[in-house]
Design goal:
Elements: E1 3-9, H1 16-26, E2 33-40, H2 47-55, E3 62-66, H3 71-81, E4 86-89, E5 94-95, H4 100-109, E6 114-121, H5 126-134, E7 149-152, H6 153-158, H7 170-180, E8 185-193, H8 196-201, H9 203-218, H10 223-235
Parallel strand pairs: 1-2, 1-4, 2-3, 6-8
Antiparallel strand pairs: 4-7, 5-8, 6-7
């Protein structure tokens, strides 16, 4: 089996070159990676040119795909063209552990068809350390897209992929369905993810908004309501 890595981006010129090189360097062997698919939602900062430059010098296939904006749409677009039997969805500012490919393959060989890694932030704030500590527990409430997500392509297609009606919360919605099927495992290794949004907005202010999004979802809010709140309170 081989892994297709799928990375949705929008204006990630500052990080995407480093991430692509990191993924190739930290894999156990290049034979386990079918390809890296970068799905661009309309970048205007030079991201596309950087990816094309990197794809010409690396010996793992790096493919740039253009898509409509929206993480769920971009992730599904990448999955449709992926040739690997395992899909690995990764944020552009998250760095998986060394030998991440081996860990994923080992879990799938055990019969675990979906899961994620634990997570740490690149910012030493006590609250973020606490959130990172929570990611060790096998609860869907302790999950998030920053932890990255692996899933066999067969299972992904069976459950219908990401729900494209979600502009935000798409990762959690997918995890909810996988937990309902008892198809989820947490690998005890750490993804290191950027805390840039926490730095920009403030740790507790942003956490308050994320808590509100989770509560609104639990109380039955629509995907449109969640996006409206996110756009008003987090993006702007």
């Amino acid at each position: 089996m081989k892994i297709s890595i799928i990375i949705p981006i929008l204006n990630e010129a500052a990080t995407i070159r480093t991430l692509l090189s990191y993924l190739i360097e930290k894999s156990s062997t290049k034979n386990t990676i079918s390809e890296i698919i970068v799905v661009d939602g309309g970048s205007i900062d030079g991201s596309q040119e950087i990816i094309e430059q990197v794809s010409n010098i690396e010996d793992i296939t790096i493919t740039l795909i253009r898509s409509k904006k929206g993480r769920a749409i971009q992730l599904n677009t990448g999955a449709k063209v992926a040739s690997g039997e395992i899909l690995y969805f990764l944020h552009a500012d998250s760095y998986p552990p060394k030998h991440y490919d081996r860990y994923i393959l080992e879990e799938v060989e055990k019969g675990n068809n979906a899961g994620c890694f634990r997570m740490k932030f690149d910012y030493n704030h006590w609250w973020l350390r606490f959130l990172s500590w929570l990611t060790q527990f096998e609860s869907k409430r302790c999950r998030g897209g920053d932890q990255s997500q692996f899933i066999t392509k067969k299972l992904f297609e069976e459950i219908g992929g990401y729900d494209e009606s979600y502009i935000v919360y798409e990762d959690n919605e997918l995890v909810d369905r996988l937990f309902a099927l008892k198809e989820f495992v947490i690998i005890p290794k750490y993804v290191i993810t950027s805390a840039r949004r926490y730095r920009e907005i403030g740790v507790f202010r942003l956490q308050y908004h994320f808590f509100n999004i989770h509560m609104r979802r639990w109380m039955g809010a629509s995907s449109e309501d969640l996006y409206r709140y996110y756009k008003e309170k987090v993006v702007n």
